Amino acid sequence: MYTCMIVEDEEVIREGMRFGIDWASYRLNLAAAASDGKEALELAGRIRPDIVITDVVMKEMDGIELARRMQADIKDKAIKVIMISGHENVDYIRSALKLQVVDYLLKPFHEEEFAEVVRKVVGDLDEERSREERLRSLERRNELSQAWVRDRLVENLSAGPAKPTGLDAYAELDDLLAGGELASLNGSDQRKAVRAVKAYIQSAFREELTLAQVAEAVHLSPNYLANLFKKNAGSTVNDYITQIRLAEAKRLLREEPGLLVQHVAERIGYKDGKYFTKLFKREVGMNPSEFRDRA
């Protein structure tokens, strides 16, 4: 579970989000609901949320200033910020911020659009947590390795040449640790696993895919898969899913000119056509209709 805070000065919208959203279904604990940026900044310093969902336009410190202040005041934690705005110029939001803003929602937004954005941010948090766990594991392993080799070298000096050398001892340690998943795949096997993941995504991208579903399909844990894929493919699993979906969307827009944009969205795994249009424009630089006209 991750902690979340919403910031909205309109009481009806704030309370609607507070009680109308099943936060637990997104693996989120709604820790606070603030009525303006000033109150939110004080709360953020105390509860240190993982995600802040904030309106842009508010009387007491707007969302842009709130994001800027959180980045300056809470330096030891990168809080993910999702902006809610009635402002149609999304480029304005992004250029004005360049902070911890990871996504945005335009009012009025649909439940499916909200779910897509939140799931993506939670997926990013999962992958960051996996990387941190991987780093801690490697640090522990390094400490254990050094202690093991040191002890075995001491034994060698006292017991004669029959004992394994320091390098042999390190290899022996590696074998003992190989029971854990982090050491279970060599370079060739890692590349095979990544190819299997890509093949699965390419065959199932029309469905609602999560990191856990993909990991189960290739018989790896989500944490291990997140690190493995990022290391070998250069992108996150979620980003690769988006890449494959948009590639298919482009093909459909070029080859089936009579297909409605909503139907294109549905055929590549997005139920909400408006969200698909926003995502397409953000990634491609133009909306689907413009792309089709140019194609």
Automatic annotation (TrEMBL):
<dbReference type="InterPro" id="IPR020449">
    <property type="entry name" value="Tscrpt_reg_AraC-type_HTH"/>
</dbReference>
<dbReference type="InterPro" id="IPR009057">
    <property type="entry name" value="Homeodomain-like_sf"/>
</dbReference>
<dbReference type="Pfam" id="PF12833">
    <property type="entry name" value="HTH_18"/>
</dbReference>
<keyword id="KW-0597">Phosphoprotein</keyword>
<dbReference type="Pfam" id="PF00072">
    <property type="entry name" value="Response_reg"/>
</dbReference>
<keyword id="KW-0238">DNA-binding</keyword>
<dbReference type="InterPro" id="IPR051552">
    <property type="entry name" value="HptR"/>
</dbReference>
<keyword id="KW-0902">Two-component regulatory system</keyword>
<feature type="domain" description="Response regulatory">
    <location>
        <begin position="3"/>
        <end position="122"/>
    </location>
</feature>
<feature type="modified residue" description="4-aspartylphosphate">
    <location>
        <position position="55"/>
    </location>
</feature>
<keyword id="KW-0963">Cytoplasm</keyword>
<dbReference type="InterPro" id="IPR011006">
    <property type="entry name" value="CheY-like_superfamily"/>
</dbReference>
<keyword id="KW-0805">Transcription regulation</keyword>
<feature type="domain" description="HTH araC/xylS-type">
    <location>
        <begin position="195"/>
        <end position="294"/>
    </location>
</feature>
<dbReference type="InterPro" id="IPR018060">
    <property type="entry name" value="HTH_AraC"/>
</dbReference>
<dbReference type="InterPro" id="IPR001789">
    <property type="entry name" value="Sig_transdc_resp-reg_receiver"/>
</dbReference>
<keyword id="KW-0804">Transcription</keyword>
<protein>
    <submittedName>
        <fullName>Response regulator</fullName>
    </submittedName>
</protein>
